[in-house]
Amino acid sequence: MSAYESISLMENLVITEIYSIHYFEYTKDFVYEGESHDFWELLCVDNGVIEVTAGDQNLVLEKGEMIFHKPNEFHALRANGQIAPNLIVISFDCDASCMDFFRDRIVTINATEGFYLGQILTEAKKTFYTPLNNPYICKLV
Q1: Where is the AraC-type arabinose-binding/dimerisation domain positioned along the sequence (predicted)?
Q2: If DSSP states are collapsed to H, E and C, what string results for 108-126?
Q3: Distance of CA 31 to the CA centre of its chain
Q4: Of 26, 70, 34, nearest to 52 (Cα)?
Q5: What is the pLDDT of residues 5-63, one digit of tens each?
Q6: Which of 4, 7, 72, 102 is most buried (CB neighbours < 10 A)?
Q7: Of the CATH numbers 3.40.640.10, 2.60.120.10, 2.40.40.20, 1.10.10.10, which one belongs to the domain with range 17-94+101-125?
Q8: DSSP track, 7-61
Q9: CA Rg, the chain, in Å?
Q10: CA-to-CA distance for 9 and 32, rounded, in angstroms?
Q11: What phi and psi values does residue 44 have, to the nearest 5 degrees?
Q12: Residue 29's closest CA among 87, 89, 85?
């Protein structure tokens, strides 16, 4: 008999589909009229400031702040006319109940979390032919 004992790993959060991975360097007067879709969308401000519409809320996000648009939530963007924003946008499917934590909440990320988002972008550049800066791409290749 072996002295080794195993540990069962739990999968509390599983992302089943990725729809888009983007890195945008917008102009200071950028406007996106908005959309809604049936999957989650993470938006993180890498630099600058962005005005975000999320459902019936109008919010201002600054560098290091992140919002998760829940499925079917209308969302739109507007630069403030003074500071050009750089944004990370990742859209995905996830049915995990722990995603409820992110509903209607702005999260501030730390340096480690920013590093990991950067790693996701680096891997996306290596994995997909699709350019990460084209907002009109609807399918990763």
Answers
A1: 20-81
A2: ECCHHHHHHHHHHHHHHHH
A3: 18
A4: 34
A5: 999 999 899 998 999 999 999 999 999 999 999 999 999 999 999 999 999 999 999 99
A6: 102
A7: 2.60.120.10
A8: -PPP------EEEEEEEEE--TT-EEEEE--SSEEEEEEEESEEEEEETTEEEEE
A9: 17
A10: 41
A11: -125, 130
A12: 85
**Residue 136, Cβ density class (10 Å: 0-12 exposed, 13-18 middle, ≥19 buried):** exposed
Answer whether 45's CB lies under 8 Å from 86's CB: yes
The token duo for 69 is 């648009």
| Per-residue pLDDT reduced to its tens digit, 72-120 | 999 999 999 999 999 999 999 999 999 999 999 999 999 999 999 999 9
3 state DSSP class of 122:
helix
Tokens of 25: 């360097």
Q: Which residue has the tokens 């888009």?
A: 20
Rounded (10°) CA dihedral 109, 110, 113, 117: 60
Q: What is the identity of the amino acid at 114?
A: G
Let me know how many helices (H) and strands (E) the chain has, helices first. Answer: 1, 9
